[in-house]
Structures are given as structure tokens and as C-alpha cells.
Amino acid sequence: MDGQEQLETEKIEVTLFLEAVHLKYGYDFRDYSRAHIKRRLIRRVKLMNLSDITRLTSLVLYDPEVFRQVLSDFSINVTEMFRHPRFFRDLRTEIVPILRTYPSFTIWHAGCSTGEEVISTAILLEEEGLLERAKIYATDMNGAVIEVAKEGIYPAQDIKKWTKNYHESGGRKSFSDYFVVNYDYAILNQRVLKKITYLEHNLVTDGRFIDADLILCRNVLIYFNKALQNRALDLFRDSLLPGGFLGIGSKEDIRFSSVGDAFENAVNCQKIYKKKIEEIR
Amino acid sequence: MNKQLIVIGASAGGISALKTVLSGIGDFSKLPIAIVLHIMEKESELPKLFQNFIEIRVKEAEDKETIQTGHIYFAPPGYHLLVEEEGTFALSTEAKVNYSRPSIDLLFETAAEAYTDRLVGILLTGANEDGARGMKRIEELGGTVIVQNPETAYCHSMPKAAMEMVPKCRVMDLEAIEEYIAGLAKGR
């Protein structure tokens, strides 16, 4: 079989794999970026020393452990505290003053992975004296990463980078105030951890579950195709209260999406949008 | 979807090398060009920098953007740049590949699968081994593979690694690559 013929065959294999996973486990990756999915599958095939994706399909059907592995492959869990400090600076200087005027407010962090970014938000609110007023929900489709997030224990090797991010984002205290560093691990302050409710939720198949004042979903949409991006954005629009805010990744965009008209740029923010308040006629 | 695509990868010494190889393009190009240049910056000034002396449009590649003729695209810093089968870009924040994000291999491998024998891969100067596997994939799928002559490259390890992996690649000096790209742009 020459290269191009094999490529055509692999396309069929990927389609069959995704159908199998959907039918067996209910997780639907059919509208994920195919280049991304294919890459992750080929990597898994190589790691397991298999000859092709079809072998992986039969393994995944009979072994839930293989499925859990693939689920982790598909969800990119590369993250850090105060990732893209500019975003958290915008959140602190532009959005926090508005939240401050509310007696209580709800935040949904979608695609939270192991929790680093939602912790960043919680720390920020703590410093602004608003953590007690906040209800924070953090969700991910992958139960395994949620279990890690609930522990609140992180490898200490990244503390230096996080501290730098924290200060660049406008953090005023010492970042180490929020962690007990124990040899190789940094253990998150329980006060911060307890304020976060972690839940399993899948943006592809699950629906609205709260009314939120602020939704954060960063670097998740890039793994979806246009149709699925629109589905997730529709869900965010419907879950946000009028005047609520949506924060997305630095290279993500809602201008040309199905919700482009429902949002406007939040003042002075790079990647935070405000849900328009509809005029009552 | 466009018929053809040029992908270029460069690392150490890459800005200067890219300036040379792109300088032959006039005010028109029949082919889109997608570039990964390893750079430490957080905010990319590359499109602006290159737009200063290039007549056709130079921009940062955006998520789900359709690849268009007459455009030069740079991978955004901190993101991998992937090409989808239907001729659009996708971005990814997955772990670094060859200590790099963006990684040349990722762009080359996904572009090879989308454009097969209609892809031209060009690998320039660099001090690591990123791009070699991507070049191999381009060759496997019938695309054209061109490596900057390591003898005259600012850093020879990246071109050399690619030559080892793809012995049948074409080895050219920067000026010859410039002429080659200019020829493709004009549709020769």
C-alpha cells in the first residue's frame, strides 16, 4: 500500500474508531479537530506498539481502561497557574470591579483540566476580598483530571513559573502564601480549594446546569470544529445571565460564530466578552 | 481547498534566512505559505516585521481560518499550528514537541496529510532537530522536500538532521530557494 492509499485507509479507521467510542461510551469526538484526533491516536498506537488504529478500536471496545487512556489523550491537559497573565490582569482590573457590585455571583470554569486556572481565579478573588461571595463551578469531561484537581496537590517544580505569571497578572501578595510546599509538592490552601466545586460535564453532549455571571473556557474551543464550537458557545450564551462575561483563549474568537451578535467586547479586555442585555420592547 | 501549499520551518538564524527566501515574491502569489519560526517572544511581531518588505499579505494563522492563496501565515507563539484535511488551520496547546511550541514537525506532518503530493516543505537553518520527521512524512506522501545547504546555513544541525532522515531531499542555498519560491508564486 503506498502512502496516499494508507492515508485514505487511516481516515476510515479514525472515523470507525470515533463511532465505536461514541456507541460504546457515549463520548462524542466526531466533531473534534480531525488533525488533532488523528495525531493523538497515532501516538497512542505507537505507545502501545500496535500496528494500526483498527487494533486500538478493538481494544477500546473491550477494555474501559484503554478508553480512559484515550480520553486523556484527546483532552489536552497542558495548563499552568495564571496562564497568559494578561488575561488575569484584565479579569482583575476590568471585571472584578463589576462583580464587586453584586451581593453574590457564580463562575463556571469549563474545561478546567487539573484545576490550575480555576485556582488562579479563586486566588485572584481572595485577594480582592470577593471569594466569600463567589460560587465557583469547575467542569471537565475527564473524571480523572477532576480527581487530581480535587486533591489540590501540584508538582513544586512549576512554582517559579507560576509565581512569575502571578506577579505579571497583577498579584500583590506572595504567591507562596497560597501553597504549602513540601519537597516535591505544592499543596493548595484548603480555604481556596474548598470554594471550588468540581463536576464532570461534557461540552459536546451535556446541557445548561447553572446561571452564571462569568464563564471561563480557555483553549478548549480550538480542539473543536466550527459546528461544535458553535454548540459550546450557544451553551455559554444560554448559561450566562444578561450582562454576564465570557473569557476565552488568546487565539480563540467569537466574532464569526453563532453567538457573535449576542456579545460585545468587555471594555479594555483582550479576550473577555460581555453578553448583551436585550432591550425590552 | 487550494491546490498547493508551501510550508517552511526555521529556527536559530531563521529571521534572516526567511527574509532572503521570501524576498523574491512580488505582489502576487499563486500559493499560500505557512511558516513555523521558533522564537521566544510571547506576542508575535513576526507578521509585522515581514510585512515591511513583502507585498502580499502576511499574518498570524488563526484557528479554523481557511488557507488562502496570496497569503503568508506565521504560527502564533505558544501554539502548535496544524493543517486540517479541508485546507483550514487548527491550533493546539498540547505539550512541546522537540522542546518547541510551535513545532515544525507538527505543521509539516499535518500539512503533508492534507496536501499530500501538492505540498512543498522547506527546512532552513536551526540548532535542533525539529522538522526532520515532518520532512520524512512529506516525502512519504509524495510532496517536495527542500533543505537549506548545511554548509552555508547559520546553524547546520536542523538541515543536517533532515538530510539524514530524508537522503533524497533537494539541498539548496538560500538564493536558489528564493528563486524556487518566486517561481512557484508566479505559477511557473
What tags apply to this protein structure?
heterodimer; A: 281 residues; alpha/beta; Chemotaxis Receptor Methyltransferase Cher, domain 1; seven-stranded mixed β-sheet; three-stranded antiparallel β-sheet; 10 helices; 10 strands; globular; B: 188 residues; Rossmann fold; seven-stranded parallel β-sheet; two-stranded antiparallel sheet; 6 helices; 21% strand
- Number of contiguous helices of chain A: 10
Broad CATH class of the largest domain in chain A: Alpha Beta
Q: Examine the secondary-structure arrangement and name the CATH architecture of the largest domain in chain A.
A: 3-Layer(aba) Sandwich
Distance between the termini of chain A: 65 Å
Structural class of chain B: alpha/beta
Helix content of chain A: 40-55%
Tell me the name of the CATH class of chain B: Alpha Beta
Shape of chain A: globular
| SS class of chain A | alpha/beta
The CATH topology of chain B, please? Rossmann fold
Largest sheet of chain B: 7 strands, parallel
Strand arrangement in the largest pleated sheet of chain B: 3-4-2-1-7-8-9
Low-confidence stretches of chain A: none
Subunit arrangement of the protein: heterodimer
Number of strands of chain A: 10
Biggest sheet features of chain A = 7 strands, mixed
